[in-house]
Write a structure and sequence with these properties.
Low-confidence stretches: none
Strand order of the largest sheet: 1-2-3-5-4
Order of helices and strands: HEEHEHHEE
Strand content: 15-25%
Shape: globular
Largest sheet: 5 strands, mixed
Mean pLDDT: 83
Helix content: 25-40%
Number of strands: 5
Oligomer: single chain
Number of helices: 4
């Protein structure tokens, strides 16, 4: 779920890149020193932004590979998963303010964003020459046409 198995496998197997999708935080797990991206949403009412703790743990530690935390504005936890959408499982249902339904991203929008991020993360980290190149932060705070807060650690 959300890349957690990759974290577990990285202890005993050769893992060359990690992508964590709205992960819960497990203090027993650490992000290995491989290209890493953590995707969070501002309207995630399942794991909230617990996955940010993985990125925070990387700060101040030397890394040979880049790490990125992307926080997608208006994204909830379950809309990345078409099965949960079909089941009408909306973890942000009934929320007000910045996470009211009209302000949140549609499931198709979240899934399209996820597809682009995953393709670029793995395409560049496994096939490209510069694993950090795909995530240049535009001044507008947008990535693929969506509002995203980006934090990066580069070697």
């Amino acid at each position: 779920r959300g890349g957690m198995n990759a974290l577990r496998w990285s202890k005993t197997r050769d893992v060359r890149s990690i992508f964590l999708l709205a992960p819960f935080f497990d203090p027993a797990q650490r992000v290995p020193d491989v290209p890493a991206t953590i995707l969070l949403g501002t309207c995630d009412f399942d794991t909230h932004q617990d996955g940010a703790r993985y990125f925070a743990a990387l700060r101040g530690r030397p890394r040979a590979a880049p790490a990125h935390q992307l926080t997608l504005t208006g994204a909830n936890h379950n809309f990345y998963n078409q099965t949960l959408v079909t089941l009408k499982n909306d973890d942000a249902e009934g929320q007000k303010g910045r996470c009211a339904k009209p302000l949140r991203l549609a499931a198709a929008t979240q899934q399209a964003f996820l597809q682009q991020v995953v393709l670029d993360h793995f395409g560049n980290s496994l096939l490209g020459s510069d694993a950090a190149a795909w995530i240049a932060t535009p001044a507008s705070g947008e990535l693929y046409g969506r509002r995203v807060a980006v934090k990066s650690i580069t070697p």
